[in-house]
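Allow me, if you will, to draw on your knowledge of protein folds for a short while. I am sending you one protein, given as its amino acid sequence and as whole-number tokens for its backbone shapes. Kindly check, if you would, that the fold set down in the tokens agrees with what the sequence suggests. The record follows directly beneath this note:
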Amino acid sequence: MRKKLSKISSDYKILVLDDEEGIINSIKVILNRSGYHCDGYCDPLEAVEKIKENDFDMLILDYIMTPINGDEVVAKIREFNKDLYILLLTGHKDLAPPLETIKALDIQGYCEKGDRFDQLLLLIESGIKSISQMRTIKQFKDGLNKILQAVPKIYQLHPIGIILEEILEGLMPLVNSKNAFILIDDIITSEDKVIFKGVGEYDIPAKSLIEMLSPYLMEQIGKSRETNEVINLDYGIIFPLLNELNKSMGVIYIESNNFNEGRKLIEIYSKQAASSISNAFLHSLINMKKEELDKTYKELKNRYMDTIEALRLTVDAKDIYTRGHSDRVSYYAMKLGQSFNLPDEQIELLKIGGIFHDIGKIGTADDILFKTDKLDYSEYEQIKQHPLKGAYILSAISMFKEVVPIVKYHHERIDGKGYPDGLKGDEIPFLARILTVADAFDAMTSDRKYRSKLNLEEAINQFKTYSGTQFDPKVVDKLILILQDYETISTELASTYNI
């Protein structure tokens, strides 16, 4: 407890007032050890002037002093400062002010002087907690006022960037932060649009944002959007922005490691922010130039595609045995989709899903990915997380929303024994069932550290054996049909992807 307090104590300024310098020095030693910033004065009138000129959080003062006593000092201070937290000390119990005076002057604590300062330190720590809570309430109130002040601007058709900046400036004082951003890319219209506003380190163009995001942060942003949950990180917090239908339209990300008591208040604030953003978009849409929005979204989309492609190549490059795997899976998935005469947009989804289906492995430890022995239970549980992690990375911006279920469910089984959700039969999206077969076929016909590849006949027998349990029988039938011309497929695959 003391360790935690000493961490935050430097944020609080304490003034000690006593006409005995020895008492001041003793208290200052104790407070400095605990990490508090402390000033000491012997002259009551000088101390009053210092409190007028500076922002002190707490006053510890003696009662019996000259030229004026402690209650008179407090009375003078209360004329201009109602919020200062005050602890009164006295070495003469019989001369202490009456309870009525203590209440009237809003003195928060009273302590007798002694050789030990344990009781005083407890009162100080209790006082700092109260000050901290009052700060949080005040910060939230000020922040809420910020967003309420932004509402008239919405109806005056101010640019949405101003509204977003107001929201961020209102939010950040709640967590003493300077770096934050709002990313919105799924609002009211069905068109692909993105609106981004950052402050501090994130006061950058939208197209530069992706370069600042780590794979882990991308995953957590996507998780927040998929689950509608607030995500706490060691160095920040992510709030989903939900519209009136409780659908995600983006996130607020704030860098800070101080969310303690204020978190629930911030959650309430973020909901108000989402409502304001929604209204702001509706009212300021006419001020936005369509070509500028289109350009911004295209740049962000391209950067995000480039980033995920780089992550995908990183996963592939880790292991010579899996190099080219995602390209081959993408190819086989497209071939299967074409055999079902699926429309071009679904073929494109299969292509992208195949390329990025293992992107979630970026967060899996190499010693697990490269293990040649059988995985133990905990290791296998980590491997089973990669479809979900991949889905979250792709969910960070909404451009991949139709690919997400394909990636998320490509390890589900028809009999319900797959992962991550144990879906079965038609509960599994059809495109995910296609990707499952494409993924399994390439895995079977590729050398791995833990086994040699199967020949074509052996692979086909495996699919026949597990058709209806692991694999969709309709997709298996199409695969077997396609593989009748395996030589042409292999030649085409090699010439297209150089693998």
Q: What stands out?
A: Residues 29 and 38 are 9 Å apart (CA to CA). Residues 133-288 form a domain with the Beta-Lactamase fold (CATH 3.30.450.40). The longest strand covers residues 248-255.
